[in-house]
Amino acid sequence: MSLTLVQVIVSGLLVGAVYALFSSGLSLVWGMMNVINFAHGDFVMLGMYTAFVAMVWLHGGPLLFGPAAAVLLFLLGVIVYYGLVRQVMRGPMLAQILSTFGLALVIRYAAFWVFSANFVTLPEGALGGTVNLAGIFLGLPQLISGVVALVLTAGMYLLLSHTAIGSRLLAVAEDRNAAMLMGIRPDRMQALAWGLASAAAGIAGALMAAIYPISPTIGETLAITAFVVVTFGGFGSVPGALVAGLVIGVVQGLSAFWFGPIYRDVAVYVLFVLMLWVRPQGLMGRP
After folding, report:
1. Beta bridge mates, 137
2. pLDDT tens per residue, range 180-213
3. SS3 state of residue 234
């Protein structure tokens, strides 16, 4: 295997780790409440603009925009749950779809109003430079983003599977009424789930801001990517989102390397359709 091919694969894994981070939040919300959040990609976009505001408008350092995006998006997720989702959960699926899709449009056009339609980027010196790892040259922003995203996704899994809070979240997901009888407040747990999912999207967006140009419409593409990752890995499975994100990142990188950049998404969607045909529930989803 050539060194160039190894570099393409490693770069794909790093990008896939960021995909996994923001997709794990979407998977968590689905697993908890069977609600599909069509505004999830726009939450990631808000995280990107949070990084831009922190770096350019407030002249903060790179260590500021990640925590700022996490806190702001966590609060937004809780507000969206109590102000919108809690009401539409009692209605039909169509009401949930239209509500979150409408929320996505509100966020998107608010971003147009505040930031305009122009593409913006972080200053070049924000996280500049390259790293040589045994002959593999990686951009420092890409390396930091991938490693941080991988650690945070693993942390979310450990939170859900090895802590008391995670047990309460899973109890509400399994049976809301039984959880109430055990003294658990489902509304609080579901609001926490929305907050965690939104915070994951915000941090992922802040990490991506150091790599990609930022615009109000980028949430559309990211939302599609998140749905592909979650469906590929299995709805409700955070480990599935992690594995699927890494696989899709590598597939995109290899497709762009072998066939050209315009085919990077085509290969992913072909793989996605094949997965639905062979295993509709995804890699780690329930049948």
Report:
1. 132
2. 878 888 888 999 999 999 999 999 999 998 888 9
3. coil
- Give the Cα separation of 110 and 190 in Å (integer): 26
Residues 6+ apart with CB under 8 A from 136: 3, 6, 7, 10
Residue 20 has a pLDDT of 92
The Cα 287–Cα 281 span in angstroms is 6
Residues sharing a CB contact under 8 Å with residue 258, sequence separation 6 or more, in sequence order? none
**Helix H or strand E encompassing 18:** helix 3-33
Separation between Cα atoms, residue 112 and residue 177, nearest integer Å: 42
Tokens found for residue 123: 């200053």
What Å distances lie between residue 261 and 65, 173, 224, 252, 255, CA to CA?
Answer: 30, 40, 18, 8, 7
pTM confidence score: 0.90
Write out the two tokens for 167. Answer: 């047990």
In this prediction, what percent of the chain has a pLDDT beyond 90? 33
List, in order of start, the domains of the chain with CATH numbers.
Answer: 3-278 (1.10.3470)
Residue that has been written with the tokens 């939170």 in this structure: 159
Q: Supply the DSSP symbol for 174.
A: H
Cα–Cα distance measured from residue 67 to residue 6, given in angstroms and rounded to the nearest whole number: 32
Q: Are 222 and 41 in contact (CB under 8 A)?
A: yes
Give the angle 186-107-12 at the CA atoms, nearest 5°: 85
**What confidence tens digit (pLDDT) does each residue in 216-227 have?**
999 888 888 888
Put residue 72 in one of left, alpha, beta given phi > 0 → left and psi -120 to 50 → alpha. Answer: alpha
Here the tokens at position 97 are 């779809």
Side-chain-facing half-sphere of 238: CA atoms under 13 Å: 25
